[in-house]
């Protein structure tokens, strides 16, 4: 990745497309929320605008928006506009940390819009994957994964007690070395490398992890980014087992439905 002289203009390559992309980040109007500008169209960062969830979350033709959104909501930057040249956000180093650093330069942390507190439990599941959201005075994620080579990992993140920038933002996206050829035949992971991803194999880590449990921390990073598509800060406790973008977005849509039903 190289940063252009203007600190709010970021360029890099897409993790899946392998193509160059530029993103100009600016402050949005207070209370409007996060939005993307793409091909002359403004796309609010809301779950109803999600168009694809395979190996990343796509928002009206812009792929892999979850790291940007995770940094926005995890770092309390609620009013941002991202003007995108290309069809995917840049991978950068595979984590949300570079986005947090950009936001620190071009925007101030905003007072959160009204926080919505979940009133009743919600559950979504698909095969062996499951997410449960329960009422909670704050925001907490308890995530468990189990994969070949790394076994079972679990991490609990409580936003009121832990530092998102330190504990979650640096965790990189990950993938298995054995899957790379299959993914590339599908047009995925064309820009992936050890420079922007944590590489795993059946024998464990191929490149050096930033945390011993970096994969599960990245899963929490993704979940925060996907739940940002609820559109406002959330008070809930989330318990997730082997969840991915499809299930995360299903929960974000249920949360939107519950919120709109109260209005």
How is the secondary structure organized here?
Elements (H helix, E strand, L loop, with lengths): L1 E2 L5 E5 L6 E8 L7 E4 L2 E4 L5 E3 L5 E2 L6 H9 L5 E6 L11 H10 L9 E2 L4 E5 L2 E6 L4 E9 L3 E8 L5 H4 L6 E3 L3 H6 L12 E4 L2 E2 L8 H14 L6 E8 L3 H18 L1
Parallel strand pairs: 4-8, 9-17, 12-17, 14-15
Antiparallel strand pairs: 1-2, 2-3, 3-8, 4-5, 6-7, 10-11, 11-17, 12-13, 15-16
Helix pairs in contact: 1-2, 1-5, 5-6
Question: How would you characterize this protein structure?
Answer:
This protein is α+β, with helices and mostly antiparallel strands and 263 residues long. The chain has two domains: 2-106, Ribosomal Protein S5, domain 2; 116-262, lpxc deacetylase, domain 1. The chain contains six helices and 17 strands. The strands form four sheets. A six-stranded mixed beta sheet has the order 1-2-3-8-4-5. Strands 9, 10, 11, 12, 13 and 17 form a six-stranded mixed beta sheet that branches. Strands 14-15-16 form a three-stranded mixed beta sheet, with helices on one face. A hairpin with a 2-residue loop joins strand 10 and strand 11 (129-134). Helix 1 packs across helix 2 (97-106), helix 1 (66-74) crosses helix 5 (214-227) and helix 5 runs parallel beside helix 6 (245-262). The radius of gyration is 17 Å and the shape is globular.
